[in-house]
Prior knowledge:
Layout: H1 3-48, H2 50-79, H3 108-113, E1 123-124, E2 134-141, H4 145-161, E3 165-173, H5 176-179, H6 181-188, E4 193-195, E5 201-203, E6 208-210, H7 221-235, E7 240-244, E8 248-250, E9 264-265, E10 269-270, E11 286-290, H8 291-296, H9 310-320, E12 334-337, H10 352-356, H11 359-362, E13 374-380, E14 385-390
Parallel strand pairs: 2-3, 2-7, 3-14, 10-12
Antiparallel strand pairs: 1-3, 4-5, 5-6, 7-11, 8-12, 9-11, 13-14
Helix pairs in contact: 1-2
Amino acid sequence: xxxxxxxxxxxxxxxxxxxxxxxxxxxxxxxxxxxxxxxxxxxxxxxxxxxxxxxxxxxxxxxxxxxxxxxxxxxxxxxxxxxxxxxxxxxxxxxxxxxxxxxxxxxxxxxxxxxxxxxxxxxxxxxxxxxxxxxxxxxxxxxxxxxxxxxxxxxxxxxxxxxxxxxxxxxxxxxxxxxxxxxxxxxxxxxxxxxxxxxxxxxxxxxxxxxxxxxxxxxxxxxxxxxxxxxxxxxxxxxxxxxxxxxxxxxxxxxxxxxxxxxxxxxxxxxxxxxxxxxxxxxxxxxxxxxxxxxxxxxxxxxxxxxxxxxxxxxxxxxxxxxxxxxxxxxxxxxxxxxxxxxxxxxxxxxxxxxxxxxxxxxxxxxxxxxxxxxxxxxxxxxxxxxxxxxxxx
Length: 394
Ligand code: UD2
Ligand code: MN
């Protein structure tokens, strides 16, 4: 075969192959184009006629609507009331060291006007977060109105800055003429008896029926604190109890009036003791115990009449139950005591040393489980709840 014929046949086959390939390419492109134009057309149609689109998607939308509606109804339930975050460990409005002095006179009306956020009974809870603890502040009290004004003046703003859910309870030891039905009766009806100058009350026959008069009863600090615990719990589900003398004011708002994992002594650095602990076991002034810690030690003793010893008994109770004392440092724990004389009917208790020596034997039977008292009156002030009680006699 001549060379020219061979070359021509090769050229012909190559050309045919190119043509077939071109045809294939064109048909694939065409099919692809046709498909796309279909969906493009339906898209354009849908845009022009939203009715159709709505119809087409109706079923889908309605199920979606139901899902969203049910979701929003769930959200509505959980949103009323709005769920608040727990308040932080370090509340943002604390200021640290505070100036505390007792020269300017303070009135209850002034304190009320500065604490309009309080609920009746001296109650408060933060509005922008949920307080970490529900704290009852218990103050043993009798005839210390001047001190109480300063306590309320300084403490309310501090407790609010500490973002506590709190209530203030003044446990007022009743004057015996109010608390004692026999005396009350004798006072009202002079025919039945009379009160002599030295306060001894006699019956018509001349027999001594009571050797007490108004305000004559011996003070019992620890029993008043037990009563505060019991009465506060009747009102609200408190989980922490801060027991404070009426004359003690903290000098730093970082000294939290709340509970810790061990019973807490808060008044650790007092002006009256040269800003240091008078002795290691000292537990007087201001302390805090959770409900659990308080019950573990059967509360406080009821039979310390007069001044002294009850704070050491409480210390003994805490350590005998294997707990330790938690304390702030001497800077944060600084506090001032309003200077005062020893009150009447609160003489040092001569039995205190003997009692402290036997705490371990007596604490199981003397405490919150053996507490008896009578409520005489409950007063709800804007700044506090004052509970006047008859604590009985030694
Ligand atoms: C110390 C302790 C106190 C307590 C007491 C001994 C300090 C700061 N405090 O207080 O915790 O252990 O010794 O019992 O060291 N009260 C009245 N009216 C009275 C008597 C007492 O309201 O007629 C209340 C009041 O809250 C007072 C508290 O009891 O702050 C303690 O009595 P105190 O202040 O006379 O005794 P003081 O300062 O020696
Ligand atoms: Mn005092």
